[in-house]
């Protein structure tokens, strides 16, 4: 198992009761939903989409989240256990302990592609 590495600058997001984190440098902008075709992070949890913010990736892909906070602290990235490595289509990069809770750190563009492959009736 690989050792932990430092990560600084993340967006701590919520999709319903679920937590997600993305590295800030992967986000070009944050917009409000409105007429766009953002993939809702809630689909990954089989929940109905209800995004209030849309993250735009450097790839141009978009992911909708319910809420977000910017975290500029340095946290240690814990590696992905092999048993869950494929569960998010390869977008899971590891876990960080931030604000007393464990957050899965995802690659934004990879997560967006994973969400697009989910059946629309997954919720």
From TrEMBL:
Record's protein name: Protein CrdC
Organism: Myxococcus stipitatus (strain DSM 14675 / JCM 12634 / Mx s8)
């Amino acid at each position: 198992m690989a050792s932990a590495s430092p990560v600084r600058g993340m967006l701590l997001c919520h999709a319903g009761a679920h937590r997600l984190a993305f590295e800030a440098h992967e986000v070009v902008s944050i917009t409000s939903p409105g007429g766009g075709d953002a993939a809702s992070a809630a689909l990954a949890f089989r929940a109905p989409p209800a995004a209030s913010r849309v993250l735009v990736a450097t790839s141009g892909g978009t992911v909708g989240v319910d809420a977000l906070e910017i975290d500029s602290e340095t946290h240690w990235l814990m590696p992905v256990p092999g048993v869950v490595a494929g569960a998010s289509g390869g977008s899971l990069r590891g876990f960080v302990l931030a604000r007393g809770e464990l957050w899965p750190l995802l690659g934004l563009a990879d997560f967006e592609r994973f969400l697009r492959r989910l059946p629309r009736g997954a919720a």
